[in-house]
User: Fold this.
Amino acid sequence: MAAFGATILDADGLRLSAEEKTFFRDADPFGFILFARNIDTADQVRALCDELRTAVGRDAPITIDQEGGRVQRLRGPYWTEWLPPLDFIAAAGRHATKAMYLRYRLIAQELYDLGIDSNCAPMVDVADQNTHEFLRNRCYGTKPAEVARLGRAAADGMLAGGVLPVLKHIPGHGRATLDSHFDLPRVDADLQDLEERDFAPFSELRDLPMGMTAHLVYTALDDRPATLSPEVMRVIRDDIGFDNLIMTDDISMKALSGSLGDITRGALDAGCDVVLHCNAPLDERRAVAEAAGRMCFTAQTRAERALAARKTPDDIDIPALHAQLETLLTGA
Assistant:
């Protein structure tokens, strides 16, 4: 098999333009990501997913951000509206682990029905009292073991539903006091604290098929953002033990500075396998695809291993699962 393009890219709107179809055919990105602007009706999303895969001539993975709460691209009335994860977990109380499994099994069902076979979750960043508000209620808790347990439940629910989870934001974004969409956060904790708290849930979930980097500086390791840091990538691979596919967080976020080409090459040189680039005009997508080129052998091997983790969803009774979840939440 020829190597995939080392990118994950998005589309402008509800259907592909002729120019986009040609671009995707030539760039052959590993996969695609959808946003709210790509979502209208179920039939429209299915048609768009078909167009994306037809453009590259294969069953490329299509991902989305469907955490629940503020970060969910599929919304009512067609799809389930979910509480933010931290609020949902609080509501579930002692039933939180089972509730998280059911929540993400139901999310997977809605995604898979549309042709979306990946989700940028679980997010196992460990929160504390200073976690920036853009992230805090997206977290699962303040204790690493609890966060890992709930993250595993979420991942298992998605995998059972035929959806590949993307573990984020590796190796841990919870200490960030700035929003990396607009600024570059710096974390000054020492390495032992990072290992015991921030890195621990990622180590517990290191078997998941895909992960996403964090755009922040860990001063104990490097003065470069994690996405661009060979030293942080060494920690992710060797110390945390995550040897599966790693994508960058969106490189158009303001936490990263420099040209898109330099950022793309820097991320791949640091050890990322694939570059995620979103919310930009076609000429910028072209520049990123050109800078990224094709996956190296090791990245391609990880990509194929991730795709092999896709499976047909287990057979479930969706109304019964909704009823079971409601019983857990009201019982809590």
About this structure: The longest strand covers residues 164-170.
